[in-house]
Amino acid sequence: MLLVHTLREERERVLAGLQKRHLDAAAAVDRIVALDDQRKELQTSNDTLLAERNTLSSEIGTLFKSGRKDEANALRERVNEIKGAVAGAEETLKGVLQELEDALLQLPNVPHELVPTGSSAEDNEVFKAYPGELPTLVDGAQPHWELAETYGIFSLELGVRTTGSGFPVFTGQGARLQRALVNYFLDRNTAAGYTEYAPPLLVNEDTARATGQLPDKEGQMYYIPEDDLYLIPTAEVPLTNLYRGELLDAGQLPVQLTGYTPCFRREAGSYGAHVRGLNRVHQFDKVEIVQLTLPEESYTKLDEMVAHVGSLLDELQLPYRILRLCGGDMGFTSALTYDFEVWSAAQQRWLEVSSVSNFETFQSNRLKLRYRGERGNELLHTLNGSALALPRIIAALLENNQQPDGILLPEVLHGYLGKERLTPVA
RNA sequence: GGAGGAAUGGCAGAGUGGUUGAAUGCACCGGUCUUGAAAACCGACGUGUCGCAAGGCACCGGGGGUUCGAAUCCCUCUUCCUCCGCCA
Protein backbone atom coordinates (compact mmCIF):
# COMPACT_ATOMS: atom_id res chain seq x y z
CA MET A 1 0.00 0.00 0.00
CA LEU A 2 1.35 3.39 -1.00
CA LEU A 3 1.73 6.15 1.56
CA VAL A 4 -0.52 9.17 1.25
CA HIS A 5 2.54 11.22 2.03
CA THR A 6 4.21 9.89 -1.13
CA LEU A 7 1.15 10.67 -3.22
CA ARG A 8 1.22 14.24 -1.94
CA GLU A 9 4.92 14.94 -2.13
CA GLU A 10 5.81 13.00 -5.27
CA ARG A 11 2.63 13.18 -7.25
CA GLU A 12 4.33 13.51 -10.64
CA ARG A 13 6.76 10.67 -10.07
CA VAL A 14 3.92 8.42 -8.88
CA LEU A 15 1.73 9.22 -11.86
CA ALA A 16 4.56 8.77 -14.35
CA GLY A 17 5.52 5.49 -12.70
CA LEU A 18 1.99 4.12 -12.71
CA GLN A 19 1.76 5.09 -16.36
CA LYS A 20 4.19 2.24 -16.96
CA ARG A 21 1.47 -0.06 -15.71
CA HIS A 22 -0.88 1.61 -18.16
CA LEU A 23 -2.72 3.11 -15.26
CA ASP A 24 -3.90 6.69 -15.30
CA ALA A 25 -4.08 7.28 -11.58
CA ALA A 26 -4.47 11.06 -11.52
CA ALA A 27 -8.11 10.97 -10.45
CA ALA A 28 -7.49 8.27 -7.85
CA VAL A 29 -4.54 10.14 -6.37
CA ASP A 30 -6.48 13.39 -6.18
CA ARG A 31 -9.36 11.63 -4.53
CA ILE A 32 -7.07 10.02 -1.96
CA VAL A 33 -5.44 13.33 -1.12
CA ALA A 34 -8.87 14.94 -0.79
CA LEU A 35 -10.05 12.12 1.47
CA ASP A 36 -6.94 12.50 3.57
CA ASP A 37 -7.55 16.24 3.87
CA GLN A 38 -11.04 15.45 5.03
CA ARG A 39 -9.67 12.91 7.48
CA LYS A 40 -7.32 15.44 9.04
CA GLU A 41 -10.05 18.02 9.35
CA LEU A 42 -12.46 15.62 10.99
CA GLN A 43 -9.81 14.30 13.31
CA THR A 44 -8.74 17.74 14.42
CA SER A 45 -12.26 18.95 15.14
CA ASN A 46 -13.07 15.71 16.92
CA ASP A 47 -9.92 15.97 19.00
CA THR A 48 -10.94 19.44 20.06
CA LEU A 49 -14.26 18.12 21.32
CA LEU A 50 -12.54 15.31 23.17
CA ALA A 51 -10.12 17.75 24.75
CA GLU A 52 -13.02 19.80 26.06
CA ARG A 53 -14.71 16.70 27.40
CA ASN A 54 -11.54 15.61 29.17
CA THR A 55 -11.11 19.00 30.80
CA LEU A 56 -14.72 19.16 31.98
CA SER A 57 -14.66 15.61 33.28
CA SER A 58 -11.66 16.34 35.39
CA GLU A 59 -13.39 19.48 36.73
CA ILE A 60 -16.44 17.42 37.59
CA GLY A 61 -14.24 15.13 39.61
CA THR A 62 -12.83 18.08 41.54
CA LEU A 63 -16.28 19.58 42.13
CA PHE A 64 -17.64 16.30 43.47
CA LYS A 65 -14.74 15.96 45.84
CA SER A 66 -15.38 19.39 47.28
CA GLY A 67 -19.09 18.64 47.54
CA ARG A 68 -20.30 21.17 44.98
CA LYS A 69 -22.77 18.81 43.45
CA ASP A 70 -24.98 21.33 41.63
CA GLU A 71 -22.09 22.81 39.70
CA ALA A 72 -20.92 19.34 38.81
CA ASN A 73 -24.32 18.37 37.46
CA ALA A 74 -24.41 21.47 35.28
CA LEU A 75 -21.14 20.47 33.70
CA ARG A 76 -22.41 16.95 33.19
CA GLU A 77 -25.10 18.26 30.92
CA ARG A 78 -22.58 20.10 28.82
CA VAL A 79 -20.44 16.96 28.54
CA ASN A 80 -23.45 14.97 27.44
CA GLU A 81 -23.94 17.42 24.59
CA ILE A 82 -20.33 16.97 23.57
CA LYS A 83 -20.74 13.22 23.65
CA GLY A 84 -23.45 13.40 21.06
CA ALA A 85 -21.29 15.52 18.79
CA VAL A 86 -18.33 13.18 19.24
CA ALA A 87 -20.39 10.14 18.34
CA GLY A 88 -21.49 11.78 15.11
CA ALA A 89 -18.01 12.95 14.23
CA GLU A 90 -16.50 9.53 14.87
CA GLU A 91 -19.07 7.90 12.66
CA THR A 92 -18.16 10.24 9.80
CA LEU A 93 -14.47 9.79 10.42
CA LYS A 94 -14.80 6.03 10.35
CA GLY A 95 -16.50 6.22 6.98
CA VAL A 96 -13.79 8.45 5.54
CA LEU A 97 -11.04 6.20 6.87
CA GLN A 98 -12.68 3.21 5.23
CA GLU A 99 -13.00 5.01 1.90
CA LEU A 100 -9.39 6.10 2.13
CA GLU A 101 -8.19 2.58 2.86
CA ASP A 102 -10.25 1.11 0.04
CA ALA A 103 -8.90 3.66 -2.41
CA LEU A 104 -5.30 3.07 -1.35
CA LEU A 105 -5.68 -0.70 -1.70
CA GLN A 106 -6.59 -0.19 -5.34
CA LEU A 107 -3.25 1.37 -6.23
CA PRO A 108 -0.35 -0.90 -7.20
CA ASN A 109 3.24 -0.11 -6.33
CA VAL A 110 5.07 2.59 -8.29
CA PRO A 111 7.54 1.01 -10.72
CA HIS A 112 11.19 1.91 -10.27
CA GLU A 113 12.75 4.12 -12.93
CA LEU A 114 14.59 1.11 -14.36
CA VAL A 115 11.32 -0.64 -15.15
CA PRO A 116 10.76 -0.69 -18.92
CA THR A 117 7.44 0.34 -20.36
CA GLY A 118 5.43 -2.42 -21.95
CA SER A 119 2.19 -4.27 -21.62
CA SER A 120 3.02 -7.96 -21.60
CA ALA A 121 5.74 -10.57 -21.19
CA GLU A 122 6.82 -9.76 -24.76
CA ASP A 123 8.05 -6.37 -23.59
CA ASN A 124 10.27 -7.57 -20.76
CA GLU A 125 13.85 -6.50 -21.08
CA VAL A 126 16.54 -9.15 -21.33
CA PHE A 127 18.77 -7.97 -18.54
CA LYS A 128 21.26 -10.78 -18.91
CA ALA A 129 21.11 -13.06 -21.91
CA TYR A 130 22.48 -16.58 -21.90
CA PRO A 131 26.06 -16.06 -23.07
CA GLY A 132 26.58 -19.37 -24.88
CA GLU A 133 24.86 -21.35 -27.57
CA LEU A 134 21.66 -22.93 -26.38
CA PRO A 135 22.30 -26.66 -26.07
CA THR A 136 21.09 -29.02 -28.74
CA LEU A 137 19.77 -32.42 -27.85
CA VAL A 138 20.41 -35.87 -29.11
CA ASP A 139 17.90 -37.36 -31.52
CA GLY A 140 14.83 -38.68 -29.81
CA ALA A 141 15.16 -36.34 -26.87
CA GLN A 142 12.03 -36.33 -24.73
CA PRO A 143 10.17 -33.63 -22.80
CA HIS A 144 10.25 -34.07 -19.05
CA TRP A 145 6.76 -35.57 -18.78
CA GLU A 146 7.88 -38.44 -20.94
CA LEU A 147 11.19 -38.77 -19.12
CA ALA A 148 9.22 -38.85 -15.88
CA GLU A 149 7.70 -42.14 -16.97
CA THR A 150 10.94 -43.63 -18.25
CA TYR A 151 12.78 -42.73 -15.09
CA GLY A 152 9.96 -42.95 -12.57
CA ILE A 153 10.34 -39.33 -11.47
CA PHE A 154 6.77 -38.31 -10.81
CA SER A 155 3.23 -39.24 -11.68
CA LEU A 156 0.35 -36.90 -12.36
CA GLU A 157 -2.05 -39.85 -12.61
CA LEU A 158 -1.36 -40.83 -9.01
CA GLY A 159 -2.02 -37.24 -8.01
CA VAL A 160 -5.38 -37.37 -9.73
CA ARG A 161 -6.24 -40.45 -7.71
CA THR A 162 -5.42 -38.86 -4.36
CA THR A 163 -6.34 -35.28 -5.08
CA GLY A 164 -7.02 -34.03 -8.60
CA SER A 165 -5.27 -32.65 -11.63
CA GLY A 166 -2.13 -30.62 -11.09
CA PHE A 167 -0.87 -32.42 -8.01
CA PRO A 168 2.22 -34.41 -9.01
CA VAL A 169 3.34 -37.33 -6.89
CA PHE A 170 7.12 -37.63 -6.86
CA THR A 171 8.34 -41.17 -6.75
CA GLY A 172 11.55 -43.03 -6.02
CA GLN A 173 14.61 -41.23 -7.35
CA GLY A 174 12.34 -38.33 -8.33
CA ALA A 175 11.33 -37.82 -4.69
CA ARG A 176 14.97 -38.12 -3.74
CA LEU A 177 15.94 -35.53 -6.36
CA GLN A 178 13.38 -33.16 -4.93
CA ARG A 179 14.78 -33.58 -1.43
CA ALA A 180 18.32 -33.17 -2.75
CA LEU A 181 17.45 -29.87 -4.39
CA VAL A 182 15.70 -28.53 -1.28
CA ASN A 183 18.69 -29.38 0.88
CA TYR A 184 21.14 -27.97 -1.64
CA PHE A 185 19.23 -24.68 -1.89
CA LEU A 186 18.84 -24.32 1.87
CA ASP A 187 22.51 -25.05 2.47
CA ARG A 188 23.59 -22.50 -0.11
CA ASN A 189 21.19 -19.88 1.22
CA THR A 190 22.23 -20.31 4.84
CA ALA A 191 25.89 -20.19 3.77
CA ALA A 192 25.08 -16.84 2.13
CA GLY A 193 23.83 -15.48 5.44
CA TYR A 194 20.13 -16.31 5.38
CA THR A 195 18.61 -17.81 8.52
CA GLU A 196 16.48 -20.87 7.94
CA TYR A 197 12.85 -20.94 9.04
CA ALA A 198 10.17 -23.58 8.66
CA PRO A 199 6.96 -21.53 8.82
CA PRO A 200 3.28 -22.56 8.88
CA LEU A 201 1.71 -23.39 5.53
CA LEU A 202 -1.61 -21.84 6.48
CA VAL A 203 -1.96 -18.17 7.28
CA ASN A 204 -4.68 -15.89 8.55
CA GLU A 205 -6.28 -12.98 6.76
CA ASP A 206 -4.11 -10.28 8.33
CA THR A 207 -0.99 -12.05 7.15
CA ALA A 208 -2.27 -12.51 3.61
CA ARG A 209 -3.28 -8.88 3.46
CA ALA A 210 0.03 -7.53 4.73
CA THR A 211 2.12 -9.02 1.94
CA GLY A 212 -0.47 -8.11 -0.67
CA GLN A 213 -2.15 -11.43 -1.48
CA LEU A 214 -5.41 -9.94 -0.24
CA PRO A 215 -7.61 -8.33 -1.23
CA ASP A 216 -6.72 -8.53 -4.91
CA LYS A 217 -5.64 -12.14 -5.34
CA GLU A 218 -7.97 -14.22 -3.19
CA GLY A 219 -8.86 -16.34 -6.21
CA GLN A 220 -5.28 -17.52 -6.40
CA MET A 221 -5.20 -19.01 -2.90
CA TYR A 222 -6.86 -22.08 -1.46
CA TYR A 223 -9.12 -21.06 1.39
CA ILE A 224 -10.36 -23.00 4.41
CA PRO A 225 -13.64 -21.39 5.45
CA GLU A 226 -14.12 -23.36 8.68
CA ASP A 227 -11.00 -21.81 10.16
CA ASP A 228 -10.71 -18.70 8.00
CA LEU A 229 -7.21 -19.66 6.85
CA TYR A 230 -5.42 -19.58 3.51
CA LEU A 231 -2.87 -22.06 2.16
CA ILE A 232 0.24 -20.13 1.30
CA PRO A 233 1.00 -19.50 -2.38
CA THR A 234 4.64 -18.84 -1.44
CA ALA A 235 6.84 -18.83 1.68
CA GLU A 236 7.17 -15.08 1.17
CA VAL A 237 3.84 -14.69 2.96
CA PRO A 238 4.63 -16.28 6.35
CA LEU A 239 8.34 -15.38 6.26
CA THR A 240 7.84 -11.66 5.68
CA ASN A 241 5.00 -11.58 8.20
CA LEU A 242 7.25 -12.97 10.92
CA TYR A 243 8.29 -9.36 11.39
CA ARG A 244 4.87 -7.75 11.10
CA GLY A 245 4.48 -4.85 13.54
CA GLU A 246 8.14 -4.86 14.58
CA LEU A 247 10.19 -1.78 15.30
CA LEU A 248 13.80 -2.82 14.74
CA ASP A 249 17.08 -1.16 15.60
CA ALA A 250 19.26 -0.33 12.62
CA GLY A 251 21.88 -2.68 14.06
CA GLN A 252 19.57 -5.65 13.52
CA LEU A 253 19.52 -5.05 9.77
CA PRO A 254 19.50 -6.46 7.26
CA VAL A 255 17.26 -9.35 8.27
CA GLN A 256 17.83 -12.27 5.92
CA LEU A 257 15.48 -15.25 5.96
CA THR A 258 15.17 -18.43 3.97
CA GLY A 259 12.63 -21.19 4.13
CA TYR A 260 11.48 -24.25 2.29
CA THR A 261 7.73 -24.76 1.89
CA PRO A 262 5.27 -26.35 -0.43
CA CYS A 263 3.29 -23.69 -2.28
CA PHE A 264 -0.37 -23.92 -3.21
CA ARG A 265 -1.90 -22.11 -6.16
CA ARG A 266 -5.33 -22.55 -7.63
CA GLU A 267 -4.24 -21.38 -11.12
CA ALA A 268 -7.87 -21.31 -12.14
CA GLY A 269 -8.41 -21.56 -15.85
CA SER A 270 -4.89 -22.64 -16.77
CA TYR A 271 -4.95 -25.61 -19.09
CA GLY A 272 -3.33 -26.66 -22.32
CA ALA A 273 0.02 -27.60 -23.76
CA HIS A 274 1.93 -24.91 -21.89
CA VAL A 275 0.96 -26.36 -18.57
CA ARG A 276 1.85 -29.98 -19.30
CA GLY A 277 3.93 -31.95 -16.89
CA LEU A 278 5.53 -29.78 -14.25
CA ASN A 279 5.18 -26.53 -16.16
CA ARG A 280 2.33 -25.39 -13.95
CA VAL A 281 0.93 -27.29 -10.98
CA HIS A 282 -1.28 -26.56 -7.99
CA GLN A 283 1.23 -27.69 -5.41
CA PHE A 284 4.97 -27.34 -5.70
CA ASP A 285 8.04 -27.01 -3.55
CA LYS A 286 10.03 -23.82 -3.33
CA VAL A 287 12.85 -22.39 -1.30
CA GLU A 288 12.46 -18.68 -0.73
CA ILE A 289 14.78 -15.91 0.40
CA VAL A 290 13.54 -12.73 2.08
CA GLN A 291 15.34 -9.58 3.14
CA LEU A 292 14.32 -6.65 5.31
CA THR A 293 16.68 -3.76 4.70
CA LEU A 294 17.33 -0.08 5.21
CA PRO A 295 15.68 1.94 2.44
CA GLU A 296 19.01 3.19 1.14
CA GLU A 297 20.39 -0.34 0.90
CA SER A 298 17.52 -2.18 -0.72
CA TYR A 299 18.65 -1.92 -4.34
CA THR A 300 22.15 -3.08 -3.48
CA LYS A 301 20.56 -6.03 -1.69
CA LEU A 302 18.34 -6.70 -4.67
CA ASP A 303 21.43 -6.95 -6.85
CA GLU A 304 23.02 -9.29 -4.34
CA MET A 305 19.95 -11.51 -4.35
CA VAL A 306 19.99 -11.61 -8.14
CA ALA A 307 23.66 -12.56 -8.09
CA HIS A 308 22.99 -15.25 -5.49
CA VAL A 309 20.17 -16.84 -7.45
CA GLY A 310 22.34 -16.70 -10.55
CA SER A 311 25.11 -18.55 -8.74
CA LEU A 312 22.71 -21.39 -7.91
CA LEU A 313 21.78 -21.77 -11.56
CA ASP A 314 25.44 -21.59 -12.54
CA GLU A 315 26.20 -24.47 -10.22
CA LEU A 316 23.26 -26.42 -11.58
CA GLN A 317 24.75 -25.79 -15.03
CA LEU A 318 21.41 -24.78 -16.46
CA PRO A 319 21.23 -22.27 -19.33
CA TYR A 320 19.36 -19.26 -18.04
CA ARG A 321 18.62 -15.66 -18.72
CA ILE A 322 17.51 -12.81 -16.51
CA LEU A 323 14.64 -10.53 -17.43
CA ARG A 324 13.77 -7.15 -16.06
CA LEU A 325 10.01 -7.16 -16.02
CA CYS A 326 8.14 -4.40 -17.75
CA GLY A 327 5.39 -2.39 -16.08
CA GLY A 328 2.65 -4.48 -17.62
CA ASP A 329 4.06 -7.82 -16.46
CA MET A 330 5.15 -6.86 -12.98
CA GLY A 331 3.28 -7.92 -9.87
CA PHE A 332 0.92 -5.55 -8.08
CA THR A 333 3.17 -5.09 -5.04
CA SER A 334 6.57 -4.87 -6.71
CA ALA A 335 8.68 -1.83 -7.60
CA LEU A 336 11.27 -3.78 -9.58
CA THR A 337 11.34 -7.46 -10.48
CA TYR A 338 13.92 -9.71 -12.10
CA ASP A 339 12.73 -13.03 -13.45
CA PHE A 340 15.05 -15.98 -14.00
CA GLU A 341 14.21 -18.33 -16.82
CA VAL A 342 15.91 -21.63 -17.61
CA TRP A 343 15.98 -23.11 -21.08
CA SER A 344 13.86 -26.18 -21.54
CA ALA A 345 15.72 -27.95 -24.32
CA ALA A 346 13.05 -30.45 -25.18
CA GLN A 347 10.22 -27.96 -25.12
CA GLN A 348 12.31 -25.28 -26.83
CA ARG A 349 11.10 -22.58 -24.47
CA TRP A 350 12.10 -20.59 -21.42
CA LEU A 351 10.64 -21.54 -18.05
CA GLU A 352 10.42 -19.11 -15.13
CA VAL A 353 12.13 -20.51 -12.06
CA SER A 354 12.65 -17.46 -9.91
CA SER A 355 11.29 -14.00 -9.40
CA VAL A 356 13.29 -11.55 -7.33
CA SER A 357 11.61 -8.32 -6.29
CA ASN A 358 12.04 -5.16 -4.28
CA PHE A 359 8.77 -3.99 -2.76
CA GLU A 360 10.29 -0.90 -1.16
CA THR A 361 7.76 0.23 1.47
CA PHE A 362 4.69 -1.19 -0.25
CA GLN A 363 4.53 -4.25 2.01
CA SER A 364 6.13 -2.72 5.09
CA ASN A 365 3.43 -0.05 5.14
CA ARG A 366 0.80 -2.73 5.58
CA LEU A 367 3.10 -4.75 7.81
CA LYS A 368 3.85 -1.74 10.02
CA LEU A 369 7.46 -2.88 9.80
CA ARG A 370 9.80 -0.09 10.86
CA TYR A 371 13.24 0.70 12.24
CA ARG A 372 14.63 3.37 14.50
CA GLY A 373 16.50 5.66 12.14
CA GLU A 374 18.32 8.93 12.50
CA ARG A 375 15.39 10.71 10.91
CA GLY A 376 13.00 8.99 13.31
CA ASN A 377 11.13 5.74 12.88
CA GLU A 378 10.79 4.79 9.23
CA LEU A 379 9.42 1.94 7.17
CA LEU A 380 11.87 -0.70 6.05
CA HIS A 381 12.14 -2.09 2.55
CA THR A 382 11.16 -5.70 1.95
CA LEU A 383 12.53 -7.95 -0.78
CA ASN A 384 12.16 -11.56 -1.73
CA GLY A 385 13.06 -14.08 -4.34
CA SER A 386 12.81 -17.74 -5.17
CA ALA A 387 15.99 -19.66 -4.55
CA LEU A 388 14.59 -21.67 -6.17
CA ALA A 389 11.24 -23.09 -7.31
CA LEU A 390 11.65 -26.80 -7.88
CA PRO A 391 9.34 -28.17 -10.57
CA ARG A 392 10.70 -26.31 -13.56
CA ILE A 393 14.26 -26.80 -12.32
CA ILE A 394 13.56 -30.50 -12.31
CA ALA A 395 12.00 -30.28 -15.77
CA ALA A 396 15.07 -28.53 -17.13
CA LEU A 397 17.50 -30.85 -15.37
CA LEU A 398 15.77 -33.87 -16.83
CA GLU A 399 15.47 -32.53 -20.35
CA ASN A 400 18.85 -30.85 -20.70
CA ASN A 401 20.89 -33.68 -19.21
CA GLN A 402 19.32 -36.68 -20.87
CA GLN A 403 21.82 -39.03 -22.43
CA PRO A 404 21.48 -42.49 -23.98
CA ASP A 405 22.42 -44.18 -20.72
CA GLY A 406 20.67 -41.95 -18.21
CA ILE A 407 20.35 -38.41 -16.91
CA LEU A 408 23.65 -37.03 -15.69
CA LEU A 409 23.08 -34.54 -12.92
CA PRO A 410 25.35 -31.59 -12.04
CA GLU A 411 28.14 -32.25 -9.60
CA VAL A 412 26.73 -30.13 -6.76
CA LEU A 413 23.85 -32.55 -6.45
CA HIS A 414 25.82 -35.79 -6.40
CA GLY A 415 26.35 -35.78 -2.66
CA TYR A 416 22.74 -34.89 -1.91
CA LEU A 417 21.46 -37.46 -4.36
CA GLY A 418 23.82 -40.25 -3.44
CA LYS A 419 24.61 -40.83 -7.11
CA GLU A 420 25.62 -39.06 -10.29
CA ARG A 421 22.91 -40.01 -12.68
CA LEU A 422 19.30 -41.01 -12.80
CA THR A 423 18.68 -44.41 -14.35
CA PRO A 424 15.64 -45.74 -16.21
CA VAL A 425 13.21 -47.84 -14.23
CA ALA A 426 12.48 -51.35 -15.48
C1' G B 1 -13.16 -31.21 23.45
C1' G B 2 -14.06 -30.04 29.22
C1' A B 3 -12.57 -27.03 33.85
C1' G B 4 -9.87 -23.01 35.85
C1' G B 5 -6.22 -18.75 35.50
C1' A B 6 -3.90 -14.84 32.85
C1' A B 7 -2.98 -10.81 29.00
C1' U B 8 0.02 -3.53 31.33
C1' G B 9 5.89 0.09 28.18
C1' G B 10 12.38 -3.67 25.37
C1' C B 11 11.99 -7.18 29.80
C1' A B 12 10.22 -7.91 34.87
C1' G B 13 6.27 -6.05 37.57
C1' A B 14 2.69 -2.35 40.48
C1' G B 15 -1.86 -0.40 39.60
C1' U B 16 -10.02 -2.24 40.76
C1' G B 17 -13.44 4.37 38.42
C1' G B 18 -10.89 10.94 38.72
C1' U B 19 -3.34 15.06 37.21
C1' U B 20 -2.10 6.98 35.66
C1' G B 21 0.55 7.35 29.44
C1' A B 22 0.96 4.63 33.54
C1' A B 23 4.88 3.47 40.15
C1' U B 24 9.29 0.53 40.90
C1' G B 25 13.43 -2.54 39.19
C1' C B 26 16.41 -4.09 35.06
C1' A B 27 18.09 -3.03 30.14
C1' C B 28 19.29 0.87 26.69
C1' C B 29 21.08 6.14 25.73
C1' G B 30 23.62 10.97 27.39
C1' G B 31 26.60 13.02 31.35
C1' U B 32 29.71 13.35 36.07
C1' C B 33 33.61 10.61 38.41
C1' U B 34 37.99 7.32 36.56
C1' U B 35 44.41 6.53 33.23
C1' G B 36 40.47 3.14 31.18
C1' A B 37 36.51 0.02 32.69
C1' A B 38 33.21 -1.32 36.56
C1' A B 39 30.55 0.71 40.60
C1' A B 40 28.14 5.11 42.21
C1' C B 41 25.51 9.52 41.12
C1' C B 42 22.67 12.96 37.66
C1' G B 43 19.56 13.17 33.37
C1' A B 44 16.81 11.35 29.29
C1' C B 45 14.05 7.15 28.02
C1' G B 46 6.81 3.93 24.48
C1' U B 47 3.97 4.23 19.73
C1' G B 48 0.79 6.61 16.42
C1' U B 49 -1.70 10.99 14.87
C1' C B 50 -2.83 16.51 14.18
C1' G B 51 0.14 21.01 14.54
C1' C B 52 5.41 25.78 12.29
C1' A B 53 5.37 25.43 17.45
C1' A B 54 3.31 25.35 22.19
C1' G B 55 0.54 21.65 22.75
C1' G B 56 -3.92 18.46 21.68
C1' C B 57 -5.88 13.52 20.78
C1' A B 58 -5.63 8.10 20.74
C1' C B 59 -3.41 3.55 22.50
C1' C B 60 -2.58 -0.87 29.10
C1' G B 61 -4.32 -8.37 23.83
C1' G B 62 -8.72 -7.15 19.65
C1' G B 63 -13.81 -5.35 19.24
C1' G B 64 -18.19 -3.40 21.65
C1' G B 65 -20.74 -1.31 26.06
C1' U B 66 -21.71 1.35 31.02
C1' U B 67 -20.14 6.33 33.03
C1' C B 68 -19.46 13.33 33.36
C1' G B 69 -14.83 10.30 33.54
C1' A B 70 -12.22 3.35 32.37
C1' A B 71 -5.82 0.12 32.46
C1' U B 72 -9.53 -0.32 36.35
C1' C B 73 -16.81 -2.25 35.77
C1' C B 74 -19.85 -5.28 31.92
C1' C B 75 -20.21 -8.22 27.12
C1' U B 76 -17.60 -10.65 23.28
C1' C B 77 -13.46 -12.50 20.53
C1' U B 78 -8.32 -13.98 20.38
C1' U B 79 -3.93 -15.76 22.49
C1' C B 80 -1.06 -17.94 26.46
C1' C B 81 -0.62 -20.97 31.08
C1' U B 82 -2.38 -25.13 34.46
C1' C B 83 -5.35 -29.66 34.98
C1' C B 84 -8.41 -33.59 32.47
C1' G B 85 -9.59 -36.11 27.83
C1' C B 86 -7.97 -37.25 22.79
C1' C B 87 -3.94 -37.63 19.45
C1' A B 88 1.00 -37.51 15.23
UniProtKB/TrEMBL annotation:
Enumerate the SUPFAM superfamilies for this protein. Class II aaRS and biotin synthetases, tRNA-binding arm
Which key words are in the record? Aminoacyl-tRNA synthetase, ATP-binding, Coiled coil, Cytoplasm, Ligase, Nucleotide-binding, Protein biosynthesis
Reactions catalysed: tRNA(Sec) + L-serine + ATP = L-seryl-tRNA(Sec) + AMP + diphosphate + H(+); tRNA(Ser) + L-serine + ATP = L-seryl-tRNA(Ser) + AMP + diphosphate + H(+)
Report which residue ranges the record marks as coiled coil: 32-106
What EC number(s) would the UniProt record show? Answer: 6.1.1.11
Q: Show the Pfam families listed in the entry.
A: Seryl_tRNA_N, tRNA-synt_2b
Q: What is a GO molecular function of this protein?
A: serine-tRNA ligase activity
Protein's pathway: Aminoacyl-tRNA biosynthesis; selenocysteinyl-tRNA(Sec) biosynthesis; L-seryl-tRNA(Sec) from L-serine and tRNA(Sec): step 1/1
Q: EC top class, in one word?
A: ligase
Primary localisation category: cytoplasm
Compartments in which it is found:
Cytoplasm
Task: Describe the location of the Aminoacyl-transfer RNA synthetases class-II family profile domain by residue ranges.
Answer: 176-410
InterPro entries from the UniProt entry? aa-tRNA-synt_IIb (IPR002314), aa-tRNA-synth_II (IPR006195), aa-tRNA-synth_II/BPL/LPL (IPR045864), Ser-tRNA-ligase_type_1 (IPR002317), Ser-tRNA-synth_1_N (IPR015866), SerRS_1_N_sf (IPR042103), tRNA-bd_arm (IPR010978)
Q: Mind telling me which NCBIfam families this protein's record contains? A: serS (TIGR00414)
PANTHER family reported in the protein's UniProt record: SERINE--TRNA LIGASE, SERYL-TRNA SYNTHETASE
Family from the record:
Belongs to the class-II aminoacyl-tRNA synthetase family. Type-1 seryl-tRNA synthetase subfamily.
- Name assigned to this protein: Serine--tRNA ligase
Gene designation? serS
